Amino acid sequence: MGIVQTEAWVLYEGPETKGRTEPAELRREVFSFPDITDDELLVEPIYGCWEANMTHAVERKPVDVCRLRNEKRVVIGNAGVVRILKAGSSITSLREGDLCMVFCNGIPDSMGYPERILGYDAPNTIGVLAKRTKLKPEQLIKIPVESRHDPQQWAAFSLRYITAWANWKRAFACWKLQFDDEQPHAPFVCAWGGGVSLAEIMLAQIFGAEAAFISSNPERLKLMKESSIIPIDKRLFKDLSYDEQRYDTDPEFRARYLKSEKIFLELISELTRGRGVSIFVDYIGTPVFRATLKALGSRGVITSAGWKKGMRTSSIRALECMNWHIHVHTHYARYSQGVEAVQFAEENGWLPKLNGRTYKWDEVPDLARDYASGATSSYFPIYEIGQA
Length: 388
Ligand SMILES: NC(=O)c1ccc[n+]([C@@H]2O[C@H](COP(=O)([O-])OP(=O)(O)OC[C@H]3O[C@@H](n4cnc5c(N)ncnc54)[C@H](OP(=O)(O)O)[C@@H]3O)[C@@H](O)[C@H]2O)c1
What we know:
This protein is an alpha/beta fold. The chain has helices at residues 52-59, 65-69, 151-177, 195-206, 218-226, 244-249, 251-271, 286-295, 317-322, 335-348, 364-373, and strands spanning 3-12, 27-34, 41-49, 73-74, 80-87, 99-102, 105-108, 114-117, 133-135, 140-142, 188-191, 210-215, 230-233, 277-281, 296-304, 326-329, 358-359, 382-384.
């Protein structure tokens, strides 16, 4: 079997330290891998979208993915669009020249739900931060022929929108389950900021929900207004960032937090006419979880697939029971959900409108730094890899 040699931005295993992690620097290097087998495809990545998990990987938090995968160096990157260069002899569904979106379910369980993610924690996978990589047919979804949307939009779609699709469908189904013989009113759906949340709130709106989106960014608040989604300015309750230890020990912190929480809850009560939120989309976690549960109405659903600012949360079980709250947790999607999401997006125009700059291949480390510091103007930062 031959060897494929390519250029990639490579992530190395970190030094062994006790309980402390050092962030990594991506290194531009030659990367080699064995040529494709009969059931694999050689592909040329064209556009990638920078994702939160890539930052988690570079920061080696919460885990060093190289160590987890037992590999000294890996290539990450699990959102993007690729062109097929060569298909293994047993593959009939895809062929040379096809433009596809990466579907990053790296290791599915027996029912097809992802256990490990390609280009992140799934061992021996090569992400799109490489000029060439190899994938299996079930890790690719063909972009509709003559799609009305750009490859960059599909690159942005491939991880955040598919996650939002699977999460929304489950959350909405759970909310409908909360009603026996009564006819449910249109749900009031509210989401904290972030790319997956934006995808999900746009979807909730298409499904007939009254929708609200919280952001501290004036451009995004304007976009929400233009899209008939209620913009909620997070700067009105800027100290809403719960920290249990500080709350218990620092009276000043506690007073500031409670003031912001009160403003937030009053605003939600006013917008929902006292009913509370029906479905709250929360990919932020620890700092907002307490207030999110308080904002949720009776028989409300809190839904998530992420923990951008903290994964440890706690709730008061008695209150959750008395309010009939359902907590939904999901992780990316099954292949059939990905295919469904793409069809729905093409037909309904449910894709992001891209407004930020496209980073060049040479600028990938700048992009990594900009995203980590919050300096990227878009929720969907696109980078170029190959020739469009
Ligand atoms: N399990 C899965 O399948 C899956 C898939 C995709 C993502 N995820 C995870 O989901 C999480 C969110 O990902 P994402 O791509 O949507 O994130 P993102 O686009 O990077 O979200 C960043 C935005 O979140 C908002 N934000 C940050 N801190 C906040 C805080 N303390 N309070 C309120 N809002 C805050 C800000 O919005 P504004 O600037 O507008 O204020 C910020 O710009 C990440 O942890 C990611 O790893 C999981």
